[in-house]
Structure prediction request, 279 residues.
Amino acid sequence: MPKTWFITGASSGLGLALAQHAISRGYNVVAAARSLAPLEKLAASAPNQVLPLVMDVTDRASIESGIEAAFARFGRIDALFNNAGYGIVGAVEETPEEELRAQMETNFFGAVAVTKAALPRMRAQSAGAIINISSLGGQLSVPGFGAYSASKFALEGFSEALHGELAPFGIKVLIVEPGQLKTQFAGDALRHMPIIEAYTDTVGGTRAFAHSMHGTQFGDPMKAARAIETAIDADDAPLRLQVGADAVDAVRDHALALLEELRRWEPVGRSIEVSSMAA
Prediction:
């Protein structure tokens, strides 16, 4: 029986690349997006393999119906990709609370809701994988990406716990931390917040970077899709996979900096034990 991949945000970018890769491998694909129109070409390319779905990860009813449709059509989900999401560029003070909440609702709570909807049947299978698409921004943050990184940090904490919870059921959990991929993310999926001039020095460079990287990214989404499948199929599958040289380098440098800071401040951190009281 061919595998079935369920992919949210499948209409473009990495989600589309994952779908195209799965089709090339002979897998069934449940391609979910907020509109059917962008999925029509994908579905027409392999009508017997692809189930296009209208699904909004912030709409619990559409999630439930999407999961039901997937199992009705293909009988199982072997790999669930929580890929739907977008980014915010702006200082924390520049980001209205409603924008921050919307960011969390899509990037974090959406992934949680899709996962929870699929889990009962995936547990019954005693097999499968949940792949949560984070970012190198899920390991570290910079001025101007606070809201986006907050959503991805939350996703990673959720995923790390899920990894331990699902291992006894034969379900793998993989956190994918991509760097720059040649997609429309920097053009279509970044919201720029109103500017407060006081943050020009700290956030201005991030804004300029976000604008300039559109169309100049050096990561190949199709190669990323292959790398992700390699990781989830491995007997020693990792919890985290950095995708792209920029992601590998940034996460490594950040981890080394954390270790150095821990070393320097360890004596202070260890100094808080309650002193022994004299008899």
